[in-house]
Design brief:
The chain is of the alpha/beta class. The protein has 4 helices and 7 strands, in the order αβαβαββαβββ.
């Protein structure tokens, strides 16, 4: 995977990156988020998880921008966008320096919640989805993911309050 992920086993890549990224679609459904009527940004997209995977899954109805600050990763995101004829945009900048607003922000494996929450909420009009794996901090709304290959995983939803 162009040295963009530490996982090398093909099955593990499929489960821990691709399938895990798609669990956001379950949370969108649970929280009544209509992907066709909202804009999204994926903060810290890395190798395209979850943003590029969601773009493949939903197709052109998903309006998503992938935000990544590492040039090598941005180049990879542009490459797979062209190769797979995907419709997302890539912004190669640190999220803190972006002055755009999307309906929802999403992120996966980005950092400590207390550090990233203000950045995600600055970028979003309605809220943020944070993929936290097995970690569930107290006091947050969440979706619990419990599938055959992904057990007891949590996606935190932080609604934007005015």
């Amino acid at each position: 995977m162009h040295n963009l992920t530490a996982i090398e086993d093909t099955r593990e890549i499929a489960i821990r990156h691709f399938l895990d990224s798609l669990t956001l679609s379950l949370c969108f459904k649970e929280k009544n988020v209509d992907v066709e009527k909202n804009t999204f940004c994926d903060v810290g997209s890395g190798a395209g998880f979850p943003g590029a995977v969601l773009s493949i899954y939903y197709g052109p109805v998903l309006n998503i921008t992938l935000i990544e600050s590492v040039s090598k990763k941005c180049a990879f995101l542009e490459f797979i966008k062209a190769e797979l004829d995907l419709s997302y945009e890539v912004i190669c900048k640190r999220a803190e320096h972006i002055n755009l607003e999307f309906d929802y922000a999403v992120c996966r494996a980005l950092g400590k919640l207390k550090d990233i929450e203000p950045i995600l909420l600055k970028l979003s009009k309605k809220g943020a989805f944070v993929m936290k794996g097995k970690e569930l901090p107290a006091g947050y709304q969440f979706c619990k993911i419990d599938l055959k290959d992904i057990k007891d995983s949590y996606i935190i939803f932080i609604p934007k309050t005015k």
